[in-house]
Write a structure and sequence with these properties.
Number of domains: 3
Mean pLDDT: 83
Shape: rod-shaped
CATH superfamily of the largest domain: f41 fragment of flagellin, N-terminal domain
Structural class: alpha+beta
CATH architecture of the largest domain: Up-down Bundle
Strand order of the largest sheet: 8-9-5-11-12
Helix content: 40-55%
Radius of gyration: 43 Å
CATH class of the largest domain: Mainly Alpha
Low-confidence stretches: none
Order of helices and strands: HHHEEEEHHEEEHHEEEEEHHH
């Protein structure tokens, strides 16, 4: 086959262009230190690199989530620490005020202190983290998950679900708490109450000259005594215990329309064993009579609890309407309030322990994510980084080939027809 001069020139131009392109690619890889990966030659490495980059992105997000969770939990821990301190202050007030000889001025001082504690606790309950998210609002996104109405009653308008964030493929960590879980979880069942209601009960117990939930001897001034029960409204369940020293009987009745005749009937059914009889004076006023030495009433509860009205008035001079003693509903007794304060403290303490455990998990997963990122970066570098020794060898080989091709082309093109005729 005969090759003409134009074709020879074209072939060498293409050869030199290819060599120059390959040398340029090698020089760029040497300069950047990064391998030039091609689908036609490095499909497996490209696939591994893509998977590693995806894993790196996911792991980096987990690490950022863990950092955020740890920061949020620091705010929650500080808030719970303050709540524990305020609860201890409330307990001190309850202990100091459990004194029947307090003057009205002293009661007013304790009431003021309790009201201040309530406001401080409400302020903490509505506290936010550095991003403006509520610490005790759950996932609601409410600016203030706890609201106070014009009467001073506090209600929760946040969510019952807590906000969580993934810190690993299989682990989520809390970022905050539901306010219902922390502030509205005192007691159990139908008797469950909130921290704010507990403080309101404490304040109510200080506003009236109430006893500790157990009456004095009801028959100390004679053989009869009148008891003024709270208004039942349409319906209310009333419970109390009468103690004669020899016997103790619990009475439980559902009262309709302020008709306490069922209570009278129940008391009279036990007259033979107690020596106490009863009669309705009018409405919710009942007269007890007996020739026994001692009669006490305690453990009083009312289903339609009202802090200002739920008590039993004692009238020992039955010819008058002078109430000389009020028997508190169980919720207003010092012992009951102290128990609830202790339970509130324990709830805060348990939540703080949970915060500590969650914070440790977040920090551990952050450290684990950092280790994974380092390993991934090393693996990715092995794929992306160029082998300089191999590249320099290839570059030297290409330069030698180019020089040889140039020399051959020069010798061939320098010949003329006269050289062959000579």
């Amino acid at each position: 086959m005969t090759i003409g001069t134009p074709r020879l020139h074209q072939q060498n131009v293409e050869l030199f262009a290819k060599l120059n392109q390959e040398m340029k690619s090698l020089q760029e890889q040497v300069g950047s230190g990064k391998a030039d990966l091609k689908l036609s030659e490095n499909l497996y490495d490209i696939s591994k690199l893509s998977a590693a980059e995806e894993k790196k992105s996911e792991t980096d997000q987990f690490m950022q989530n863990a950092k955020r969770a740890a920061t949020d939990l620091e705010f929650v821990d500080l808030a719970l620490d303050r709540l524990q301190n305020l609860t201890m202050n409330l307990q001190e007030l309850a202990v100091e005020s459990a004194n029947d000889t307090l003057t009205q001025k002293e009661r007013a001082r304790y009431i003021q202190d309790a009201q201040m504690l309530k406001k401080e606790i409400l302020d903490i309950a509505n506290q936010k983290d550095s991003f403006g998210n509520s610490l005790f609002g759950g996932v609601s996104g409410k600016k203030n998950p706890f609201v106070m109405d014009s009467k001073g009653n506090v209600s929760y308008v946040g969510s019952a679900l807590t906000r969580e964030v993934p810190v690993s493929p299989s682990l989520h960590v809390k970022q905050n708490f539901s306010g219902q879980e922390i502030f509205g979880n005192i007691g159990s069942g139908a008797a469950k109450t909130s921290v704010f209601e507990m403080i309101d009960d404490f304040i109510s117990s200080l506003k009236s000259d109430l006893n500790g939930g157990t009456s004095s001897n009801l028959l100390s001034d004679g053989n009869s005594v009148d008891l003024v029960f709270p208004s039942s409204g349409a319906e209310a369940k009333i419970e109390f215990t009468l103690d004669t020293g020899a016997t103790s009987n619990k009475f439980s009745n559902t009262i309709y329309g302020n008709d306490y005749s069922s209570v009278v009937t129940q008391i009279n059914n036990l007259t033979g064993s107690t020596g106490v009889s009863a009669s309705v004076v009018s409405g919710n006023r009942i007269r007890l009579q007996g020739s026994i030495e001692t009669l006490n009433l305690n453990n009083f509860t009312a289903s339609n609890f009202d802090r200002d009205q739920s008590n039993i008035g004692v009238i020992k001079d039955t010819g008058t309407s002078t109430v000389i003693e009020k028997i508190t509903e169980n919720r207003l007794q010092h012992g009951s309030i102290n128990t609830k304060i202790t339970e509130a403290f324990e709830i805060f303490a348990s939540a703080r322990a949970e915060v500590g455990a969650s914070s440790r998990r977040a920090q551990e997963n952050e450290a684990a994510a950092q280790d994974i990122l380092l390993t991934l970066e090393e693996n990715m570098s092995e794929i992306r980084d160029a082998d300089l020794a191999s590249l320099l060898t290839q570059l030297e080989f290409l330069m030698t080939n180019k020089e040889a091709a140039q020399a051959t082309f020069t010798r061939i093109t320098s010949k003329s027809l006269f050289d062959f005729l000579g």
